[in-house]
Amino acid sequence: MAEQINPWSSTPKMDINRLIADFGIEPFAPVKEKIADQPVFIRRDIVAGHRGYDAVADAIAQKKPFHVLTGFMPSGHPHFGHLMVMKEVVWHIQQGGKGFISMADREAHAVRGLSWEACDRYAREYMECLYALGFSGEIYSQRRNNALKDLAFEAATKVNFSELSAIYGFGPETELAHAVSVSMQVADILYPQLIAGTAPTVVPVGIDQDPHIRLTRDITNALRMFLVEDRGTHISIRVKNAPEGALDAVAKRFGGAKKYEGHIDLPAGHTAEEVDAVVREVEREFGGFGFLLPSATYHSFLQGLQGGKMSSSVPDSLVWFDDPDKDVKKKIMGALTGGRQTLEEQKKLGGEPEKCSIYQLNRFHMQDDDAELAEMCRACRAGELMCGTCKKETLERVRTFLREFKEKRDEVAHMAEW
């Protein structure tokens, strides 16, 4: 039986390779070959899987329009565990994508019980971080976005509580507001196409967020008025939820169309992609959405400094961006490593960087130079690099990053308003 994923868990224990197999997530390695100038998170395989990313990779290569969106639940201060997805969004914008960020205050209020005032306070901190990293685009609050709320209502008409129970494990004790927050998540993912036009959309997330992506892709299909199928000898356009007159409108768009009760067949010479684009136009003319299936990239989690996942519920597992220097030093120097029990064993057997939170922090964020990271890994395995030395070097990198990041945040603080 497939392992269930809980997007709201603070300490998920998940085997990424197993989840890729269990839930039909595609490995990222094949599609990454389409990307010419690969950022750290792609070339180091930190992004491990995807759904439908080929469309986005093609849009990047062909310089065609695409969107990038992700969301942050403003239920606490931002920290290093949030940095990867922020970098992924900004990189996609630099590749030509139109950027969107949802501040999921409705989710924070429903799931974590935060006041609206607290949500706004934390949201501004996330906004500062995003702008400091180079984000450009739209950042919005769920509760203030009326177009989003209308879209969430439409999405909610295409899912029932049994489906939510199967995907999320909801039961009789689940509050209605929690369930409603899921439809807001779906609306978030589809919102860029509603506002900025139909185009491939990528949602960079941790793999624990896959239930939201799967549900949104199902609802996207459910919202379609027509189904376009390539039958080999011809293209078939079948009615799903189309109003009266829409099928006739589709037939008029194509020469040689053969119209039947509930469907149209097109002769050879058409491609499914070309036909689907025209059909989506008709859907929008008749009050539909015509959304493309959203895509997602899934990155592995940055290991917490005490092992497991970085989580705000375990303060020593992470470094907040506003941590005092004495706390930063305490956390880095006290971090769990892949070192041996004694200095003698370390020199004889070498360390295990794959188990080391300090090495992973460098792999994710603190060491951009691949050659230097490889040398760190080699020296660790050879027993030449001791944990204390590695921690001190990493601490200086973290201090430099935090100091420079704080300066950038201060420069853009005035932008962090609704």
From TrEMBL:
<protein>
    <recommendedName>
        <fullName>tryptophan--tRNA ligase</fullName>
        <ecNumber>6.1.1.2</ecNumber>
    </recommendedName>
</protein>
<dbReference type="Pfam" id="PF00579">
    <property type="entry name" value="tRNA-synt_1b"/>
</dbReference>
<comment type="similarity">
    <text>Belongs to the class-I aminoacyl-tRNA synthetase family.</text>
</comment>
<keyword id="KW-0648">Protein biosynthesis</keyword>
<keyword id="KW-0436">Ligase</keyword>
<dbReference type="InterPro" id="IPR014729">
    <property type="entry name" value="Rossmann-like_a/b/a_fold"/>
</dbReference>
<keyword id="KW-0067">ATP-binding</keyword>
<dbReference type="GO" id="GO:0004830">
    <property type="term" value="F:tryptophan-tRNA ligase activity"/>
</dbReference>
<dbReference type="InterPro" id="IPR002305">
    <property type="entry name" value="aa-tRNA-synth_Ic"/>
</dbReference>
<keyword id="KW-0030">Aminoacyl-tRNA synthetase</keyword>
<dbReference type="InterPro" id="IPR002306">
    <property type="entry name" value="Trp-tRNA-ligase"/>
</dbReference>
<keyword id="KW-0547">Nucleotide-binding</keyword>
